[in-house]
Design a protein that fits this description.
Layout (H helix, E strand, L loop, with lengths): L2 H11 L3 E5 L7 E5 L1 H21 L6 H23 L1
Antiparallel strand pairs: 1-2
Length: about 80
Amino acid sequence: MSRLSHVVKRLEQRGFVTRRPAEDDGRITVATITDAGYEVLVAAAPGHVATVREYVVDTLTPEQLAELKTIADQILAKMDRGKAC
């Protein structure tokens, strides 16, 4: 199993997600967040945002943030193109 699969398995064991095979391709597993998982996510969000701001956003110059955005946009565009394949 990949590391991601192990993480999702642990989340499922804690009741934060459910897993099922994809309807159109049984080789793919679909994970869906549960109500309990969503509550944990919402509770963790403020601390996560504060930490990212402290260690990433506040550390970079405005120019570096703009470059990071450009890089992230390129990665997301590539991921979006991959969905169509």
